[in-house]
Amino acid sequence: MTVIHEHFDLTVPPLDRSPTQAEIQAGIRESQAVICTLNERFDGDMLAAAPSLRVIANYAVGYNNIDVDAAKARGVIVTNTPDVLTNATADITWALILAVARRVVEGDQLVRQNQWTGWSPTQMLGVDLSGKTLGIIGMGRIGLAVARRAAGFEMTVLYWTRSGRPLQPANPAWQRVSFEELLRRSDFLSPHIPLTPDTHHLLNDAALRLMKPTAFLINAARGPVVDEAALVQALQEHRLAGAGLDVYEKEPELHPGLRELSQVVLLPHLGSATIETRIRMGMMCVENVLAVLEGKPVPNRVA
Ligand code: DGY
What we know:
The protein is of the alpha/beta class. It folds into two domains: 2-83 and 274-293, 3-Layer(aba) Sandwich (Rossmann fold); 86-266, NAD(P)-binding Rossmann-like Domain (Rossmann fold). Helix content is 33%, strand content 13%. It is built from eleven helices and ten strands. The strands form two sheets. The chain has a seven-stranded parallel beta sheet with strand order 6-5-4-7-8-9-10, with helices on both faces. A three-stranded parallel beta sheet has the order 1-2-3. The model has no long low-confidence stretch (mean pLDDT 96). The structure holds (2R)-2,3-dihydroxypropanoic acid. (2R)-2,3-dihydroxypropanoic acid binds at residues 38, 60-62, 85, 271-272.
């Protein structure tokens, strides 16, 4: 904030809630730059309401909340926050993998609710990670960071990417397979892809039906990549062992039935939520805004 104040007039919406679309439209009428989060939708109408706008700096790496084509058509530059949140997001993915495999949340509740009667050989059994197969969809920065962490857990890594391009950096221990094989063989399946029309409901009913009944689905990418209704049904019918979710189709709403499933761990979109990461994301937004307004090369331009 201080950095921006030094250079520009700054308008900040109420911090205790997300502003409505109408409030944003009214607020950005004369703005040249906007820093927004994934909660704010920048479509054609919103852009039309801000004729002086030169840059939208998205406080996230995913920018599915912005109509990039409409922005391009108006000459508005769009930036995001890559790299700085890779480790935090990979870590939360592993937090979910461990939580579902070892029933961490259920165990906490048992103790907290004073229901624990003492150690027992068959109490709250989970599953091993070592020797299991981790399936990753998308090997961008976050997918790669998730894959690297798997070595510490002695897991096999399979992956599928939409582009089929060679990995940078490659790792001979990781095996590229077809989408169908990935679904069939993974014990833990985790998508790390952006939300686009092509990836919307990539994990639909037909895809989930190919997974093993002992498998867990993890999602720390974007909610609509998974058909949430199909997932709830698969879990209710025990066609999947469980799920660890950080993101949802209609945040902050959840599909009916999801909350009631004990084999599911539900986080409130915490992927990048560490103090260090959020500070770096904020600084990156400021750097991008300053670069555009001062006519310098823009470090994290996506459009
Ligand atoms: C992102 O950056 O896309 C995250 O989902 C928000 O932290």
